[in-house]
Design brief:
The chain is an all-alpha fold. The protein has six helices and no strands. 88% of the residues lie in helices and 0% in strands. The longest helix has 81 residues.
Length: 178
């Protein structure tokens, strides 16, 4: 009888040890899965933080863009009056209508460049407006390039009317200086 009691006690102890080992293995697997999930969540939070930071930068740039647009437009108005160019008649922002009008007129009549060159050479206010426009537009494009991580927005501005107008005004300014 003692042998049976000892055998039952050893069997129960062995069974408890086996159950404990199985329980430890399952707990270890669950802990590994939890660590893996937490690592994935942490990486996702980092990516979300970066996206939000980039969106914040773009939103901040967009808010400041209106101020910059108005500043650029203030420089363009006397220039347009001097070279007799009217803005486009579209529903765009006034800056883009003004730039579009200048670039459309230049495409139709290259003599507009000569008019602008003369105006820069003869009128210090126009020279100042062109210089200020070039500096401010270049600063804006540089800021866009620094904040736009994928480059789509800054490329759009550089390749669009703003970039074309920079080339046009820089060319007129260079010609006036020589």
């Amino acid at each position: 009888m003692e042998n049976i009691a000892v055998f039952i006690l050893i069997s129960i102890t062995t069974l408890c040890c086996i159950v404990s080992v199985v329980f430890l293995i399952q707990t270890n697997n669950k802990l590994r899965q939890m660590v893996k999930n937490l690592t994935l969540q942490y990486n996702l939070l980092i990516k979300t933080q970066q996206v939000l930071k980039n969106k914040f930068s773009v939103n901040e740039t967009t808010d400041k863009a209106e101020i910059i647009y108005q500043d650029l437009l203030q420089d363009l108005i006397p220039i347009m009056a001097t070279i007799d160019v009217m803005p486009r008649t579209t529903s765009e922002h006034p800056l883009w209508r003004a730039l579009g009008g200048i670039m459309d007129e230049y495409a139709k009549n290259p003599f507009v460049l000569e008019k602008l060159r003369r105006a820069i050479k003869l009128d210090s206010n126009i020279a100042h407006n062109v210089s200020h426009y070039l500096n401010r537009a270049n600063q804006f494009l540089q800021h866009m390039a620094n904040t736009d991580t994928d480059g789509i927005l800054s490329t759009t501005f550089t390749d669009g009317l703003l970039g074309q107008s920079l080339t046009f005004f820089a060319q007129a300014q260079t010609l006036a200086a020589s």
